[in-house]
Amino acid sequence: MISNGIQPGDQIYLLRSVPLIQQSDYNNQGRARPDQVENDFDLQMMAMQDLAERQSRALTLDVSSDVSGRECHSPSPRTLMPVLSISR
After folding, report:
1. Are the C-beta atoms of 18 and 43 separated by less than 8 Å?
2. C-alpha angle with apex 74: 72 to 62, nearest 5 degrees?
3. How far apart (Å, rounded) are the C-alpha atoms in residues 36 and 53?
4. Exposed e or buried b for every residue in 41-77, given b needs 16+ CB within 10 A?
5. Nearest by Cα to 76 from 85, 84, 67
6. What gap in Å lies between CA 32 and CA 24, rounded to an integer?
7. SS3 of residue 79 by DSSP
8. Helix residue ranges, H only, 7-88
9. Which pTM value belongs to this model?
């Protein structure tokens, strides 16, 4: 919730989020309009770009790592995890 509005120095991030659904239905004997096919390919490309952008910001493990994803999300009480805090 923004209570004081945007302040000087604040940063705003706009992220596209293309829904991961099939919006068109192509049947076996029907004709496909080229512009509809092009639009569907554009949506698929935008969805892949969205996923690539998210993946580029994600923490990843080597495929040979002995640490599981579950262990990364559930640290033991003795493990120190960096915490990001935002203050004005």
Report:
1. yes
2. 10
3. 26
4. eebeeebeebeeeeeeeeeeeeeeeeeeeeeeeeeee
5. 67
6. 10
7. coil
8. 34-57, 69-73
9. 0.59
Amino acid at 4: N
Place of tokens 């995890």: 81
**Cα–Cα distance for residue pair 47/15, rounded to 1 Å:** 12
Q: Which two tokens stand for residue 13?
A: 């991030």
Walk along the chain (88 residues) and give the pLDDT tens digit of each residue.
Answer: 556 788 889 998 888 888 888 888 888 777 888 899 999 999 999 999 999 999 898 878 788 888 776 666 655 555 545 444 444 4
Which amino acid appears at position 88 of this protein? R
Structure token pair of residue 84: 């990001």
Owner of token pair 């496909």: 32
